[in-house]
Amino acid sequence: MRSRQEQSTSGGPCRFAVARITGSPHYPDIRGAVWFQDVPGGTFVSVKVTGLPLYQPAPPGGDPIGPHGFHLHVHGDCRVGDPQNPFLAAGEHWNPYDDPHGNHAGDFPVLFSNHGLGEMCFFTDRFKVWQVLGRSVIIHENPDDFRTQPGGNSGRRIACGVIMPWRPQV
To answer: For residue 64, what are the contacts with CB-CB under 8 A and spacing of at least 6?
Structure first.
């Protein structure tokens, strides 16, 4: 028997989920969604986000703004908390297999944007939809380097969304 977290609102296994993305106080115009769909062998993930900050090359000794680190985090908590360092309540990257950074189940490809619009789709075999319900999706200000432990040096969290069951309209 599946746990309650594995059930959709209709009582069957949850095959679809969505995280509605909202921006931090520094980036209040960020809006969008990340959809999750169970498919054979894993999960298909699709994202569409608007209002992302425009790319800025790294200044000497600094980090670029964009492309954006994009991850699943442990807790489904998008409280802003400290406006200078928002969304810390979401916790660290989701890493159920205790892998090094760059191979966490919650490590997603970086999110590129054009004129503030970021769209991407990808497949992962690292989880099924029911495993990520109640967790959060975080978009970071800087690109993930996929090396630095434990979080990839991807900078400030600029947007967040909690993953909830979703029932597509037929």
So the answer is: 55, 56, 57, 58, 142, 143
Structural domains counted in the chain: 1
CATH of the domain at 22: 2.60.40.200
Residue 87 lies in a domain: yes
Residue 21 lies in a domain: yes
- Residue 165, both tokens: 């069951």
d(CA 116, CA 120): 13
Cβ atoms 158, 24 nearer than 8 A: yes
For residue 170, being part of any structural domain is answered with no
* Closest among 118, 113, 119 to 56, alpha carbons compared: 113
Phi, psi of 84 (to 5 degrees): -80, -20
Per the confidence metrics, is the pTM higher than 0.85?
yes
Q: Which residues pair with 123 in a beta bridge?
A: 44
What confidence tens digit (pLDDT) does each residue in 106-138 have? 999 999 999 999 999 999 999 999 999 999 999
| Residue at token pair 């949850």 | 14
* Domain extent at residue 123: 4-165
How does pLDDT run across 34-92, given as a tens digit for each residue? 999 999 999 999 999 999 999 999 999 888 999 999 999 999 999 999 999 999 999 99
Provide the 8-state DSSP code for 99: P
In a domain, 20, yes or no: yes
